[in-house]
Write a structure and sequence with these properties.
Layout (H helix, E strand, L loop, with lengths): L1 E7 L6 H14 L5 E7 L6 H11 L3 E5 L7 H12 L4 E4 L8 H8 L7 E6 L7 H18 L10 E4 H6 L9 H9 L7 E6 L13 H28 L1
Parallel strand pairs: 1-2, 1-4, 2-3, 5-7
Antiparallel strand pairs: 4-6, 5-6
Helix pairs in contact: 1-4, 7-8
């Protein structure tokens, strides 16, 4: 049994194919009990209508639409989906059809053994030079300042509800998983695994490097730096 959470903003060209890849994965792995939660963050294209069409084809799909100009952001949409998911294991992935069913299978096949199964990309050299340079320095920098050894912070992941319920994630930016890993390392009896995967070319360009999102990321990195110091102090001296 598993819940799938798909954050979607202006993904009318990709959302149906994303759902199809998930359904294909469940069929190939004989997963019968599942739900797909699409979190539409107030899209201004035809995403909502496309999802309604998808619901008619796949009854296990549910749409959560943010109306009245309410935008939770990428991270906020994922977090809302994680909290609404009804099954013990929750897999989130973006709605841009960048992950094929064969790649999703790699993560699903590990879901029973670990609290978190996350991913890193083995074809990073195919991405834009700007993204390659950013990732090359971003991940090692975060590992140094947080005392972690994570190969990648932004891969799609399966997360146990036990972990979700213990961690109050407040980050609504694209880097919300940084907070996940900073807080998760202080959870007792916590195990995880990273799985290599391949990222397909996106049809829509990413919003991750827009100025507003970049400012949120920088703010979050500094906020979590001080939070990590506090959690380390609390773990050593107050517990």
């Amino acid at each position: 049994m598993i819940s799938f959470v798909i954050p979607a903003y202006n993904e009318s060209k990709n959302i149906k194919q994303t759902v199809e890849q998930i359904v294909n994965s469940c069929i190939s792995l004989n997963i019968n009990e599942f739900e797909i939660l699409i979190i539409d963050d107030n899209s201004n294209d035809d995403t909502e209508n496309i999802v309604h069409q998808v619901v008619n084809i796949y009854p296990k799909v549910n749409l959560i639409f943010h109306k009245n100009n309410i935008n939770l952001g990428f991270g906020g949409s994922v977090i809302r989906g994680l909290k609404l998911a009804k099954y013990n294991k929750v897999l989130w992935l973006p709605g841009d059809n960048s992950h094929s069913s064969s790649e999703i299978n790699k993560v699903l096949s590990e879901k029973e053994e670990y609290d978190i199964v996350s991913t890193y990309y083995t074809n990073a050299n195919e991405r834009t030079i700007g993204r390659r340079i950013f990732t090359k320095f971003y991940t090692p920098f975060l590992n140094i300042i947080y005392g972690l050894n994570v190969p990648y912070y932004n891969g799609f992941s399966i997360i146990s509800k036990r972990i979700i319920n213990q961690i109050n994630i407040k980050t609504n930016a694209h880097c919300w998983q940084v907070e996940l890993w900073v807080k998760a390392k202080y959870i007792k009896k916590f195990n995880y695994k990273f799985v290599p995967t391949i990222l397909k070319d996106r049809i829509n360009s990413t919003n991750a490097f827009k100025l507003k999102n970049s400012v949120k990321v920088v703010y979050t990195i500094f906020r979590l730096f001080f939070l990590n110091l506090y959690l380390a102090f609390k773990s050593k001296f107050l517990n």
